[in-house]
Amino acid sequence: MQLTVLGTGAAMPTPGRAQSGILVTDGERRLLVDVGSGVLGRLAETDIGYEGVDTVLLTHLHLDHVSDLLALYKARWLAGEESITVVGPPGTNALVEDLLDAHEYLRGRLNYAVREIEAGAWTVAGFDVTATPTRHSMDGLAYRFEDQVTITGDTREFQGLISFAEVGSVLVHDCSFPDSVEQDAHTTPTKLAQVLDGAALDRVYLTHLYPQTVGRHQEMIETIESRFDGEVQIAADGMQIGV
What is the set of active-site residues? Predict the structure, then answer.
């Protein structure tokens, strides 16, 4: 299984970073996790392209995770593709319907399906996916894929989420701000280090980076590595993560 990181930014744009999006692939199995602003363009740069992935899995419904969703729908229609499936937490169906209401000419251009899921075990685009609730300003879900890698979406840190991820070996976790920014809806390095202390994970990738983290990346890594024995990296757009 491979992750292609398409977007590592957040709601406040940062040069070189699209908003949230990760392409998960394993052979012919393909799944796009979140589709924030700029992700469609990043996806077009991959060998798979927007023509080659027909399923989107949303962690939650904030704008910086869904803003390219209808653009992806339209691009697939214009490319001659026939379908798209959108999977996400409760509220996903209303989101898609509202988008199509606002752009009525797109209705019927693709065969589309919406699945709303909650915490539990699911099959999505051929992947075994386990979902657990996050702790954010909007209800959302973190996802573990094939019991190998976990993508948190937006969340503050908590021990239960680390325990959920420890079933696998790789964690892609929100670390939106440096310690100097007080947060209760996102994660900062010292708080993340506290819950990672002793965690049985091999690699952690930090993502959803706000402009306040610019120039602080090495400091953020060192803070977490002071408590966590595994490898810590700042995720970057275009990064390939093998699992």
Answer: 64
